[in-house]
Structures are given as C-alpha cells and as structure tokens.
Amino acid sequence: MMPFLLIDFPAFKPIALEIGPFAIRWYALAYICGIVFGWLYARSLLKKERLWGGPAPMSLVQIDDFILWVTLGIILGGRTGYVLFYNLPFFIDHPAAIFRLWEGGMSFHGGFLGCVVAVMWFAYRNGIPILSLGDITTAVAPVGLLLGRIANFINGELWGRATDASLPWAMVFPNDPTQLPRHPSQLYEAGMEGILLFTVLAIMIRLGALKRPGMILGAFILIYGLTRIAGEHFREPDVQLGYFWGWLTMGMLLSIPMLIVGGILIVLAIRRGAPRPIGAIS
C-alpha cells in the first residue's frame, strides 16, 4: 500500500495541443515558448541603452534574424550531444532513431555548444561583438531551461533518485518500473537552472554587467555548471550510463569544464573593464 504522504503524480497527457491530425507535445511547446519569450526579452534589453552604456552592439533586426540561427543551434547541438554523450552505442545500432526527435533525447551541453557555434558564426557574418551576442543569448536562456524542465516533469521523465517515502513531496512516476518514491528533481532543476539563474543574471544586468562584454556569458556558464552539479545529486542518472567511479554522473562531468570556462570569462570581463563612452574625457 502506498504511504499516505506520497504525492500522486498528476495525470498529464503527453500532447499539449491537438488540431486535427496535428499534435504539439509539451516538450515541443516548451521549446517554442522558450524561444519566443527569450526573443521578446532580448529585444527589450536591446532597447535600453542605459544597460549597455550607449547604443546596443546589435540592432533589433539582427536579433530577429539571429533567432533562426540559435534555434537550429539548440536543436542540432542538443540532439548531437545526446547521441554522442548519452546513448552512442544505441544510435550506432539504430541510426534512423537519431532523427526521431519526438521520442525525446536532448542534451543541454550539446545544445549549448550548438548555440556557441551559432553565436560565433552569426557574429562574424554580421560584424557583431561575439561576447556581447553571447551575453544577450545567455541572459534569456534560463527562460527556455525553466520551461524545458517543467516539460520534463509533465512528461514524467528524467525523474529523481529514490528517497524515503516520508519526504512530503516524494512522488512515484508512472513510467518508473521500480515504482519507488522519488525526488521530483525536474522541479528542483527548473527552480535552480530557470528561476534562480534568471534572477541572478537579471540583477547583474541591472547593475551594469552588460557594459562588460563576456560578464553575463561567464556568469551563466559558471552558475549553470554549479546548479547542474547540485541538481545531479537528486537526479537519477541515465540507465544506460549509471555512475562513473561510483558517484559521478555524465551531467556532472560535462559541467566541470563549464566552471572553469565561466570563471575565466568573468575574470577577463572584470580585467577588461567597461568600455569608455564615446566622447568621454580621459
């Protein structure tokens, strides 16, 4: 008999919107809404010259064009990362499954690398400072992370590690073959990678961080790495990978380089200082 303290997992339908033969799943809807909300937030930041210490380093038209590039970077990078980092043997045996995105399987770290490529390529082609474009991209990224983790929860996937049934918010996920009470780690990650990260970056932006190219980019990379490692302590590792050396997960391993890169970018941004406004007296 299930302990009375356990919370029943809500009976969500996998399809969020269905019109005739067309169906949009929650995961796809999270991507769509994340990109749209991120785009609107990016436009609002670009309109505020005081945040940049002068005219923004890119135009609204350029950020509109960039949306397609970053969307492709997220999807192609996220899928490639999942194939390479999380389930390569399976996809070697079943290569056609690589293209079945509706079945799930995206890697944040792969998607992030895809975004890096998109930022560098678009910035080079349009004469935009790479670090500033990276700042605006990562400033809005937590919106997508928040919605993506909520979609993971709705889908009943990427659940947490088993816990004591006395934990007030422990849940039994319908797709879990063990039917053990588990941490709803998707919601933990939504809070840390989404709400917390967005809040910290927003405060930094209000304090003038966009005036130091690379500061927001570095802070995003560093803080995400920390929150992902923290979240991995509650998340069940992928069954095909398990633990490395008895306690490390793939998510932790992929996040360690982010701590180093993020820290370096922050130090360089501080040393570089804010750009001097045009016409300033030296």
From TrEMBL:
It comes from the Bacteria. Its EC number is 2.5.1.145. GO terms for molecular function: phosphatidylglycerol-prolipoprotein diacylglyceryl transferase activity. The keyword Lipoprotein applies. The chain crosses the membrane at residues 26-46, 66-86, 106-124, 136-154, 187-207, 214-231, 243-270. Its main location: membrane. It holds the Pfam family LGT. One of its GO terms (cellular component) is plasma membrane. A 1,2-diacyl-sn-glycero-3-phospho-(1'-sn-glycerol) binds at residue 149. It is a multi-pass membrane protein. Keywords: Cell membrane, Lipoprotein, Membrane, Transferase, Transmembrane, Transmembrane helix. The keyword Membrane applies. Pathway: Protein modification; lipoprotein biosynthesis (diacylglyceryl transfer). One of its GO terms (biological process) is lipoprotein biosynthetic process. It is found in: Cell membrane. Catalyzes the transfer of the diacylglyceryl group from phosphatidylglycerol to the sulfhydryl group of the N-terminal cysteine of a prolipoprotein, the first step in the formation of mature lipoproteins. Belongs to the Lgt family. NCBIfam families: lgt. PANTHER family: PHOSPHATIDYLGLYCEROL--PROLIPOPROTEIN DIACYLGLYCERYL TRANSFERASE, PROLIPOPROTEIN DIACYLGLYCERYL TRANSFERASE. This is Phosphatidylglycerol--prolipoprotein diacylglyceryl transferase. The lineage of its organism: Bacteria, Pseudomonadati, Pseudomonadota, Alphaproteobacteria, Hyphomicrobiales. The gene is lgt.
